[in-house]
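Narrative of activities, Objective 1.

The group set out to show that a structural description can be obtained from nothing but a protein's sequence at a throughput compatible with the screening campaign. Below is one input-output pair from the validation batch, recorded exactly as produced.
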Amino acid sequence: MTVRKAWIIASVAVGSAMAFVALLVVGVYVVAGNLVNGIGSGTKALAKGAVPAAYAGIVQKWGNLCPALNPALLAAQLYQESGFNPRARSAAAAEGIAQFIPGTWATHGIDGNGDGVKDVWDPQDAIPSAASYDCELASYVKGVPGNLSENMLASYNAGAYAVIKYGGVPPYKETQNYVKTITTLEASFAAPVTRVDPSKQAAGAIYFAQKRLGTPYLWGGDGTAADGGRFDCSGLTKAAYESVGVTLPRVANDQYNAGPHPKRNELLPGDLVFFSTDLTDSRAIHHVGIYVGGGYMIDAPRTGAVIRFDPIDTSEYFGATRVTEDGAKALPTTV
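Output recorded for this entry:
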């Protein structure tokens, strides 16, 4: 959605582009039939830039505090709680990046940075406190049937007593959604250890975007009649995936967390590709396009330009996301 800097590009004829993309659409299905491995098991390091640089080291360290926790799961929990906003405050008086209510903080907050102060507003205290509290809860429910990490998250949301009482994640809709959301988001914060499964909806998303080639850019455009069918960058990617039944957030930096992150040499047509002024922080992403192969994307670049092919290999290339339906559904509506 944010206007990016102008690109120096090579022109591509729209007529040739249509034929080029048609071949890519077919290619998506061919490759999808050949790749079967998703994110593997084992220790989960953080995906590049998925956590703001100021917090990445803390999350990586404290995410390994106990077997029920890992850095990607802790990152997903913090993202769900506050969107990594250290000044977040909820209507229920939950405070800080980990959204502790005052009573829980008074009992479970720790001085994570050793400065002699336990400050709920300081991520260097709040992140270690969240990890410590998670692991304490995990110790309470370690004898409960089911997945220990899920029971731990359910305890964070509903209390360990409820998990023990019901023999697992309690039948509370809010708690069940909390657990499912965070465990799904975990994949978008973890660095993949094997190739990432192709997106089932990729070909349809490309088809939608290629039909809009040549359409003038409109900042804030969603392609509606009121917008004259025009889009900005994230409006185009949102509409492209919405056309195949996947609802993405409106803003580019939120779309980054809609699935796992393939490496540059593992990109497939349909992956979303992102660009940032800060290559250590996904929250600084300001532009997004749909990868079509050969080092090119379809994107809505800037005011005065049209939807077109652009190269992805620039100094601001941040990374990519292979959109999944579950990943998109798990994203908070506001972060």
